[in-house]
Amino acid sequence: MKSFLIIALVASITYLPWLHASAVPATTNGDIISKSDENPQIAVTTIIAGIQTVAAVIAMCRQLMIDTTFKDIMATEIIPYHTELAASYGNLNAESIKLVDDELKIMMAVVDRQLTELHEQNKDGRTISFEEYLATMLQNPVLENDYDEDIFRSEYKHFSKFGFARGDVDQEVVRQVITWFENLIGDADVLNSTRINIRDYANIVGATDAAIEGLKTLIMRTQEVERSVMEVGVLRYPDLDHPYFKMFRIKLKAYRKSFRVAFVQSDQSGIKGEYNMQKFKPRESIIKQIREKTRKVAISEVESLFAD
């Protein structure tokens, strides 16, 4: 029965919408753009299965920070860097997709179809949460979650000084945050997939400092307060170097803690990071049951998504 449902699902893929996002805002000061942005992914403004690329999302977040101040944006409920789910296609393009294993392409076809249907069923246009996207992946019979590779990590970075958001962002603090962030993730492919460059790190530091300043009035009523600075979910597509889906989310929050030591009230502030990642590979026992004609349709559809 399960295999019949998957066959029907893949066979129903006759066309996945190729929509184009609006022009991605251009970044300034090109000398600080990271290497990953110097070599953009194929079709960086293309929306597949209703999901924008990470490059497009981060560019819009970057533009938001250019158009406003750290203080003003952190006075709202807006999370400066936020998307429930964006897509990263790695080194996939018209040529490399042809070299990808057929089982991976069939897996991509079924995932694209499921995500497309998830958006089509969202009649009221509400925001689909990262948890819903993850549940869709976990319930997909052609995917096998590699539980041994699951990562759930949380780290704190204490700031010993404040006030730099009122002027130039302290570059030494930015460097410290970059090192801390890289250690939190611990995966070069994930770091590259986020499309975050040095300007974004500076924005994160500035927004965190502005949030910490704003939390001063709340700390008197509670022992710990937080304000989200980044919540980014990413679906990393399989390619030649990484033959599996990666689904991960990064959360960064400004925090302020109040505690007593020997009757002395003390505060501690900084940035808190959470990183969760799950890896999915093809479930061979299901995919091998799909008939040849259906396999060819699925493979053709995925190759057409990355055609020039």
Could you characterize what this model shows?
It is a single chain. The chain has helices at 2-11, 35-38, 54-67, 70-74, 96-99, 102-120, 130-138, 171-185, 188-193, 198-215, 284-287, 292-305; strands at 19-20, 46-47, 81-88, 143-145, 151-158, 224-236, 245-261, 264-282. Helix 6 packs across helix 12 and helix 8 crosses helix 10. The protein has one domain (2-305). A hairpin with a 2-residue loop joins strand 7 (245-261) and strand 8. It starts with a helix and ends with a helix. The strands form 2 sheets. Strands 3, 4, 5, 6, 7 and 8 form a 6-stranded mixed sheet that branches. A two-stranded antiparallel sheet has the order 1-2. Residues 1-45 and 162-167 have low confidence and may be disordered. By secondary structure, the chain is an alpha+beta fold.
